[in-house]
Each structure stands twice: as structure tokens, then as C-alpha cells.
Amino acid sequence: MARPLGIPEGAGLHNPLHAIVRWREDFQRMLSARVLESRLGFRVTWYLGALTLGCFAIQVTTGLLLMLYYHPSIPQGYADMKDLEFVVSSGYMLRSLHRWSAHAMVFLVFMHMAKVFYRRGYKTPRELNWIIGVFLLLATLLLSYTGYLLPWDQLSYWGTTVGANIISSIPVVGANLRFYLLGGHTVNANALLRFYVLHTMMFPLLVIVLIAVHLWRLHEDGGMYDLDKNGNPIVPEHSALAAAGAPIRLEEEKTLSYRELLFREVIGIEALTVVLFVMGLLWKAPLEELANPLHTPNPARAPWYFTGLQELLHYFPPFVAGIILPALIVSGLFFIPFSPFFDNVTTYDANQWFRRKPIRMLIAAAFILVLGVLLVRVHAWDALLPAFVVAILLLLSTEPPSQPARGLRSWLSSRPLSFWIMTLFLMEAVVLTAVGTLFRGPSWAWVWPWRG
Amino acid sequence: MKRVATYGLVLILILPGCTARRAAGPSPTPKAYGTQLVEVSGGKQIGGVGSKLSDPLVVQVNGADGSPVPGALVSFRCVGLTFNPSDALSDSSGQASVAVQLGGIPGSYQVLAATPKSGGGTVTVTSHEIALGYQEKLGKEVSEKYCTFCHDPESTPERVSNFDNLTPPSPHQFSDGNTLNPMSDADLIKIIADGGPALGKSPQTPAYRGTLTTAEIKAVVAYLRAVADPPYPASAGK
Amino acid sequence: MSLGNQFGRVARFFVGTAPRRFASVSVLLAVVSSIAPTKDLFSEWRHYQRRYVRMIRNRPDAARLERRFESGIHQIWIPEQHVVDRCSTCHVALQEASLADLRKEPFRPHPPMPHSLTEFGCVVCHHGQGAATTVQEAHYSTKAWEQPILPSRYTESSCGQCHMDVLEGTPRLNQGRRLLARYGCAHCHAITQPDGTLVAPVDEPPSLEHVAEKTTREWIFAWVKNPQAYAASSTMPNYRFSDQEAADIASFLVAQSTASENSRKELKRAAPPPGDDAAQAGTSLYGTLFCSSCHAIQNAAGNLVGGDLAPELTRVGSKVNPDWLRRWLQAPQGYDPKTRMPRYRYDEKQVALLSTFLLSKKDDDFLANVHLPDSDTASIARGKKLVADYGCTACHRVNGVNPPESFAPDLSRIGSKPLFQVGFIRGMPETLPDYIAGKIHDPRAFGPALKMPTFSLTDVQVESLTTALLAQTDRAVTMPPELVRTTSHAKYHPGGDAGRLMEDLRCQSCHSINGNGGDMAPDLSFEGSAVQRKWLVDFMNNPNTLRPALIRRMPKFNLSEAEIKSLSDYMLSAYQASGFDSQALEASALNADAAARGKQLFYTKYACQSCHIADYKKDKGYVGPALTDVGDQLTPVWIYKLLKNPNALNPGTVMPNPNLTDGEARDLTAFLITLKAHPKGGTT
Predict the structure, then answer these.
(1) Terminal-residue alpha carbon distance, chain B
(2) pLDDT higher for C374 or A13?
């Protein structure tokens, strides 16, 4: 790497100013070395990773401040929530920020994963980063799950109980796993302490380490660009210019990314923080009555990011919906970078895909048919909706290869198999979560939310 | 054009919030006007704080010739009391009746019932309602157990009054504000605790020092002050 | 320049380049993040405290009040009761008695009350959310949390969480608890009291095992349709049965009826004198036998005259079978062994006259329009099912139907029922007291399928019942025993011959002995120490009255000499006050001089004649019993000790403690024992 300030090679390592300069340069390396200013324009899907990191930072800050007032014991924890609400200066704000930021983080991490997938950011050399990302997704969900119990109100208690009961349906080891998780046979004081330690110590440390590796890998893998054989970034605009024979003007490359990109990411994070503050001012985080093991609310709803799973539980037995399907989904996520069978491309060359299209289409259609039959058998009409939509899209994409490639139909017909499966999965997740949160009432019966 | 449309839309969305809120419902319009207002029944009722009085407060609107006036608007006002309804039209017999709920502060409340007069202005009548708090209720229970058989001239099915069996001077009724209001609290406590002779009065009032606690005696005094008619100045409501 | 261009320029100034965007968003963030801490400076409670400081500046004792005021959040913390009350943050002057003249909250001091604020906090009595520091959350907390502030008319219910004894300051609570026992709520609903016992009902629903002997199917039909049409004071509720249902129940009850012990006995009857004489004699006999002590009859003006211990007899002639009535009057326990009515030992003539009188008390309109179809097995089967479904056997004994278990909801914790568990009627105020009051007032409005019947209660009675039920909170049921205040007594049943006699005579229906029994008649717990034997025997022979103005008096039981002796012996030996040494007073001290001094004290210093009659010619005071024969009636030691401390020997007495010296008490005793009956005889 060049040393732009003109410090000679091997010159004095003892001068602290020089050391600072070197640190600054090392810091610059954390992000892409070069990026065109034109590429730094605002794109909705662009800052999702940074925003997720911003949410995490908000969580750590507010979480540390909340820890000053919270005792993880029964019923002191609940009384502390009330103290935060009424006595601690801006205590309600701390709590609301923490809660909305948690929801935002789950949502953003999900969107980030979808964006990375659709932008094919899991291809070589980025497989490890994708794996780390899946681990971060799981860690985020677990952070949310463990934090959910801490207020010790009815919502917390029963949401945690529902989740723990799902775990116990794993064959052979389920009951033991549940015992280890809860520190007992029911959700009680041991569980609270355990979840507190998990939520404030173990998972945050894990997440911090994972984020560090994730960001380092991001840089090593070339940031926003693919790397060529020599490890240099492939800038598509340069390729286009080179292909057209035009000279590459150096001025367009002048942007130092760490300042500009960092600015933009910090602006995004600050804007997110403003939005979360406003949400915290307008809508206070809810606190229901003290947890009552003798009274189950009807319905006992899991946190919103698990209500999709709960909706599936309504149709399938706990072992299938709680263990098999999530295991399939998670392992599917892990497997995505290593699925040459579905998506045998490492370049952006679209033409290669047509060769495998019939097989691809058949497999996708078969997958959807099997899923459809299964869902119809269990009368899961809401889960059938995304499958139906994807089937329609699949039908639309059938097009003879001789036609020139243009329009939606041709774009669809060139999608790889992983696209279809991932799109189906994402749509199912959204629909099932929406249904489980909004359209289910007492005894998990269907309700229209506007009718109350 | 698009800009105008945007500004216009924003304005339309904001405007409804700026309009003044309408009042909670108009009072009924009067069809007639009277010249006199008298209380028929429901005054001087005693109830616990916050409770609804068992009888409604009924006033009658009369014309100049003394005949009842139907359709006149009567409004009932008193800080601390709730009336249902607070404005009512008099019925065919010229009477307007409202249910009264007492407020949370013990004491005597002065209700002002007003009706607009034929020639302009209003004619009013005041009624008193009495709210008893804990101390006054305790005083009432104590006085009904130990005092009323001599101090209340009327007999009830539960007890016969001893009032007429006493030699003069006769005991004063507890609602006798004219006699009791000028006496200080200390004097009242003294006469209850040490009997009539302590204030140079008849020994027919026994000493209750050995029977009642200080709190109970003070409670009786509080009750006396609450039910005094004319009202005891310190406890009279607005 | 157009508006759009101007707008564009301004926009570019703030968000044109990345650094500017950064600056703008940062400023926005700084502003937004400072809103919450700034709102703290204007929090609601600070506003109230500032108002208080401004208000007290104009008061005479401003300096003292300002010294005693501390700004900031105030809290009362009682960890054992899980109490964290921050009410005094806004209600800063709760302990400043000098502000009692203020007419508006929140700066009024708390009225005098029997408990200290720092020992109990606020929420224990007033409910609400103690931990809150805003008006909305403290007073009107959300449905999922603790109850909102208890309306002031129900505050007495909080006393009932610890106190099971009868307190003077809680008339509504006392009445409510009496009504809970009297109206039979406890027959269907289990209500656990703070000391762990269940509320025991005191009404006595009659057994229906032999009901066909007593009355007709038509009467049962009319009664079940509307009990209050027969007896306005009846506590039986109205189940709103349809005509068909009532007819079925009547058929079933008549069908299940078996023969009672009385029905197998020989019935002696005497022919009553004919014509008006019989009616007149019957009426006066009813009067002299003092049946009105327990039974009430509506007089011509519509007022109930008599006691409420036993059924109302206004229309009894339309109800009972004449044969049954005669057997009943002779031996009530032969029909219903558990009845409270004593066996009066009437002779045949009295029975005949009484029956004629009672049978004349009828109302022909009552059954005029009742025409029932013949009863058949289907109707009886339906009736049996109805009796089982509606829980009639929770109160009445019926052959073939067992008492239901857990028939109605347990009300032990009704005062803490969370609002989300309550089904309100649309349009009613959604608070717990309104729910309870509404349910008691009209249960069927909450759902036509509910089985709870409608009781005929006045609004005041409903309010009292609601108060008593609101006392049944979680805190009440889990109260540590050392904090419960109760005056329960051990069960008392007299034993031996005298005991059997007292059972037969049902003395404890009216008299209480050692805390057990009724409260209509004097407490007999210490009667043995109080009275002289001769007077007691004379009294039981002929219960003259000490209080002629009362309607409810002790009836004459026509006891034999042996029976009277047995009872007197028992009472004089068993019913002694503890530590009573009947020889304590020296007879020599009670001489004529002492009597003269005593008379002086009686009439002049203490004016006892304002309440007691010592001489019929002079005295008129009628609050306490007449003392004209007290020298025959009471023992001197009793008189002496009673004068020294009336409440110790006669708990709850109205007689004030005159704080006599020993000498004064002796003198008064000496005077009182000279008051004896005229030697010629006659005791009045």
C-alpha cells in the first residue's frame, strides 16, 4: 500500500505522529479501498448492513444504561420496569428505544440477508461471510428471544414458554435441552437469570466477535466489487469503458471511501436513530401485567419474529413445524453458497443459465407442487398464498429460449433455482409472520384485525 | 402543478386539526320561563363521600301567579357534586329532578339551581347536601349509638326517643347550627368528655370520657359540624 | 425566483453534500434526543410540586410549610406488603393538618384516620397504581394492571381486608357482610375470609323433603314465579322461571315429598269459639304470645310489624295446610328438625285460636289465576332436572337431588379480579365495583344463560354488598394470621338436661351466649353472676318485660317447675363472669346512710333518671331498663361492678362509664338495692 503522506519506507517507527498516521491508514483498509463517487448515491437497500450495525450499537448503549436499573429477579425485575417508566429520568425513552431498536434490528438483518442474496453476494469468495451472516441472523433472533423475558410480564413469560416448549419437542435431547436453557423445568427465577446472562453477556460478546470478522471479511473479499485473479477489484464501469476502448479517467476514482462511505453510513445510522427516538416518543414500549403462571393469555403469542413459526405450528405437529422445518430452513441458508447444483455460475453472464433451464424449471415446479399438496392437506390456506403467487410467476417465466431476452417474463425465466426457492421462503416468512401477528385471535382462530 | 397539489393536500390534511373542538353537547332549549323557583324535596340529604344520594333533588318552577311552569330550563351547579343531568327541562308539573352524586370531600355542599326569568336575569334557589367522610361517618355511628335517643325527638322502629322524658333544658338536636356553631371545637369536646357540668350545663348529659376514645369524640364533633344547619362556616362547600 | 427554485436552494444548503447531510442529521439527532430529558423537567409531578410551593407562600404558616417540603419524588416503601407508593409526590401535604380548609385536591391533607400513612401506604386502602408518577397511570391504570383508584364510597372495603371484627367506622362494610350471610350468598358461592374460614350463611332455607304436607302445588308455582309477591321481605331470589318451568318444579317437589315425623302423630284439636270472638281472641293471643318478636305481618298501612328472624306471615293462610299448621305449632321440630322455632308447649285451645288467626291471614288474589295442568312423569322429570341445574339444593334439602359442589364461582378473590377477565355489558362503566354492583343488581343482564337469580335489594344494600365483596382481595386471602383482626368465638353448645332444654326452646335463636347466637335478646354469658335466683325463676314463669315500649319481647314458654329449676340451676352456675367474687361487697357498707348518699348521686350529680326510671311517679327517662325492681333482680356485687365499668360486663352497652370512685359506686349500689317491688306483689 502506498504511503500518501510522503513518509519514507522504513522511516522512524518511534515517532508517535507517524504511528497515528499508520493507524489511520490501517483503519482505512477496513472498507473498500476505492469506490467511485457516482456509486455512492443513495440506494434503499444499500445501507442495510450498516443500519443493522447501528441498531446493535444503540442496543448496546441503551442496554448498558438499562442494566444500571434492572435486577434479574422476581418480582424485583418487574418493579424495576415500573421504576424505569416513572422515576428514572428518560427511563421510558431508554426502554422504548431498546425495544424498537430490537425490532428494527431483526427486520433489518432479515432485509440485509435478502439483499445480499438477491445481489448474489454469497458467491465465491464470499461464502464464509455468508455463513457468518447466517450465524449473526441466528444470534440476533436469540438475543431478541432472551431479552424478551426480562420484563417478566405476561407477554414475556408466555412467549418464552411457547418457545421453550418447541425446543422440548426435539427427539431424544429435547427435554434436556429445554432444561439446560431454562435452568429448570419451568420458566422461573433460574430461567430469568440465565436469560439475563445470555442476553447481556454471552450473545453480545459472540455478536461483537462475529461482526468484527464479518467486516474484516467484507474488506478482504473486495467490498462492493468482485475481485479478479490478482486480488484487484473489478469495476464494471471500467470494464465497460475498457471494452468500448475509452480511456479510464483517474479523476473518477478519486474518492477515498472510508470518509465518504463512512459519512453516508453514519448519516444513515443517525437517521435511523432519529426515527427510533421519534417512535419511542410516540409509542411507549408496552408493559402488561406481572407474569402469572396460572393464567395463560389467549392467545399466548410468541414475539412477532417467531409468530410465523407459531402459525406453522398451527398446521403441523410441533416436531415438524418447530424442529424439522426450521432445521431445513437454517441448513438451507447455510447451504446456499455451496449449491452449484442450483446455481452454477460465478460470473454475471446471463447466457449460461438458459442451458439448464428445463431441469431448473421442472425442479422448481415439482418443489412447489409438493409443498402445495402438503399445505392443502393441512388446510393452510394462508401459507398457500405465496406458493400460489410463485407458481404464477413460474408459469409466466416459461418462455421458449429462441425468443430475445427482454421484459419481466424473460428476466424471470433467467432466474436460477435458488432464486425461486429463496423467494418462496421469503414470501412465506412474510405472509406467515403477518398472519400470526395480525390475523390470529383467541384460541388461534382467524380474526380480521379491522373487525376486532 | 404537482407542487400546488402537494401543498394543497398537506393543507387539507392539517386543517381539520385546527378547527375548534365543539362543546360537549348543547343544553336543551327552554320553551318557557318562570319567575319563582322552590325546592320540593331531596335537600339536606346525608350520604357518604362519593356515593349517590338515595333521593333525587327536585325543584319546581312557578310562574308569577304561583302555577307551575313546564318546559323551563333549570340548571344545577355545585363544585364537587355531579348531577345527572346537570341541565333539565321542567316536566308537566313544573318540576325538574336530578340524581345527585356527592364528591370526594366531606362537608356541606351548597347547590345552586337556577332558571332564566321571563324578563331576563335568573332566579335561583339553594339546597344543601351533606357528604360524610370517614371521620364523620364514624361520628355518625357513635352518635346514633350513644346520643340520638336523647338528642333526636323522633322515634324510629329501632328505638324510642327519650327526648320528651327529659326535664328542661332539652338537649339540642345535632343539626341545630344556631346553637352549636358558635361553640368552639374545644368546648364541644369538653362537654362530651366531661358531661354537662363541665360547661355549667345540665347533668343530664353524662360524661363519656370513660366510654369513648378521643378519636371517637373528635369524630362526633366532626359529624356535628358536617350536619349543622345553618352550615358550620369552615366546612361549608361552595 | 420561483417557489420551487427557492425551495431547491434551501434544500441543497442543508443536504447538498455528504458533510452537510451529516451535519443536518446530527443536529436533528441532537434535538430529538434531547426531547426526552427536557420533558423530564416539565413532568407532571414537578408541575404539581411547583404549584404547591406557589400556593403555600400566601398562607400564614408559610415558613413552617416550606421548611417541611422537599422537592423530588417521594415514596412510601413497605417491602413486606410489596408496597411502593409514590402518591405523596403530588399529594405533598398529606400530613399537613393546617391545610384542611383547602377545597381542591391534590394538596388537601388526609382526613384523620385510624392508621398511620407510613405504616400502610396509600394503595392498600385506595388501590390504584402506587408506583406511577402520572395522574393517568396512578389513578386510572390500564386494564392489564392493578385496579384503578377505588371510588371513595367503597373505601370501607379495604378495612375488610384485615378486619373481620365489626368496626364502628365501617357501617357499609358491616351491613354488606350481614347481607352476605343473610341473603344466602354463601350457600352457592364460597367466600374465604381473611382468617381462613368460609362465610357461613345465617338464613335458614326450609327443607323441602315433606313440602307436600305443608302446601299445595299451586302455591309452590306462585312462589317460585315471584317470591316477593307472597312475602315482600323474603330473602329468596327470583329465578325468572317461565310458567312451564315453574309448573315442572312444583310437580317435582310435590312428587318427591315424603311423610314427616309430625304427620304420623295423633292430632288433638279443640273446637274454637264461634264467630267474631274467635278472631278477636286469636289476634290478642298472637299479641300476648309475642310471635311478633320473630315473625312479621304487614299491617293495613303496608308497614311490616315484627321481627325478621322468621318467615313473614302476611299471607300465610293462602299457603299452609290447616292440619300441617296445627301440627307445626305443637312440634316444629317434628316437621323440620333444624328449624329455629322453639317448641312452645301451647295447649290445644291456644293452638286452635292461633291457627284460626293465622289462617285468616290470606290473600285470595294470590292464587286466583293459578291453574296448573295435571302433573305427569315428564313434568316431574323436567322439574327434577331444573332443580338440579339451578342449584336449588344448595339451599334447600330435597329428596333425590344432592347438593351441588362448586356450583357458583368462588368469590374469595373477587376484589382483585383483573378487568380483562370481566365480561362487561356494552355501555356500562368498565370498573370492577360497577361490575360487581351490576351483577348483584341484575345478573341476567350479563347473559341470559346465567343461572344466578335476581335478589330484591335496594341500591344502598347493593352498595353495601359490593363493599363487602370488594374486601375479598388477594391481599385479604393471603394475609398473615398475626395481622388478621377477628372476634370469632369457639362454638358453644350447652350440655346436659339444661342443654337439651335450651335446644328444645331454641334459646340461642334470640340470646347470644359466649358469642354464639342471636342478637335480638340480652347476652346471657354472665347472667349467672348478674341475677338473683328468685327473680330468675319468676321471670321464666312469666316473662314480664323490662322495656314495655318494645314489640319484640320474650314469649311465655309454659315451662314446668322442674324445667325452670333445671334452667336456673344451670344458668346460675355456668354463666358466671370470670373473677367474680360475689362476696366481695361488704353488706355492712350498704346501709341507709349510703343509700341516702346514693340517691343524691342518682338524681343530682349524675342525673341517672334521664335514662333510667327509679320511681314511676317521678321519673320518665326511658333508654335503659327501668330500675324499680333492681333490688330484687340483680345481685349487689353485679350492680357495683357494672357501675364501675359497664362495658366490661355488658359489652357494647350504650351506658356510659361514669368514672365513679369506689365510695360513689358503693353508695349508688346501696341506693339501688333498696328499689324493690311493692310487697303486695305484682312486678310492674
Answers:
(1) 62
(2) C374
| Chain-chain contact of A271 with C25 (C-beta, under 8 angstroms) | yes
Cβ separation A79–C84 shorter than 8 A: yes
Q: What is the ipTM of this complex?
A: 0.84
Give the pairing of strands B45-48 and B122-132: parallel
- Which among C435, C407, C408 is positioned nearest to C421, based on CA atoms? C435
Rounded-to-integer distance, Cα A128 and Cα C526, Å = 96
Closest residue on chain A to C72 (Cα): A87
Interface check A266 vs C, CB under 8 A: yes
What residue spans in chain C does CATH classification 1.10.760.10 cover?
Answer: 211-359, 501-574, 582-672
User: How many angstroms separate the CA atoms of C65 and C92, rounded?
Assistant: 11
Facing residue for A93 by CB, picked from C28, C36, C144: C36
Domains of chain B, earliest start first: 36-132 (2.60.40.10), 134-233 (1.10.760.10)
Residues 6 or more apart whose CB falls under 8 angstroms from that of C86 comprise A86, A87, C73, C74, C75, C130, C131, C132, C133, C138
Nearest CA in chain A to C73: A87
Task: Tell me the pLDDT tens digit for each residue of A391-420.
Answer: 888 777 776 555 555 677 777 777 777 788
Distance from CA of C420 to the nearest CA of A (A): 10
**Which chains reach chain C with 3 or more Cβ–Cβ distances below 8 angstroms?**
A, B
Q: Which domain holds residue A429?
A: 301-452
Q: Percentage of chain B with pLDDT > 70?
A: 87
Cβ separation of B211 and C656 shorter than 8 Å?
yes
Cβ neighbours of A260 in C, within 8 Å: 18
Q: Helix B214-227 crosses helix B134-146 at what angle (to 10 degrees)?
A: 100
Residues of chain C with Cβ-Cβ distance to A274 below 8 Å are: 25, 28-29, 32
Query: How many residues are there in chain C?
Result: 684
Q: What is the CATH number of domain C211-359?
A: 1.10.760.10
Give residue-wise pLDDT tens across range C386-435.
999 999 999 999 999 999 888 899 999 999 888 878 888 888 888 899 99
Its pTM stands at 0.82
Give the whole-angstrom CA distance, residue A272 versus residue A49: 12
Chain B residues whose CB is inside 8 A of the C611 CB are 150, 162
β-partners of residue B37 are B61
* pLDDT greater than 80 at residue C118: yes
Q: Nearest CA of chain C to the CA of B42: how many Å? A: 16
Does C72 contact chain A (CB < 8 Å)?
no
Architecture of domain C501-574: Orthogonal Bundle (1.10)
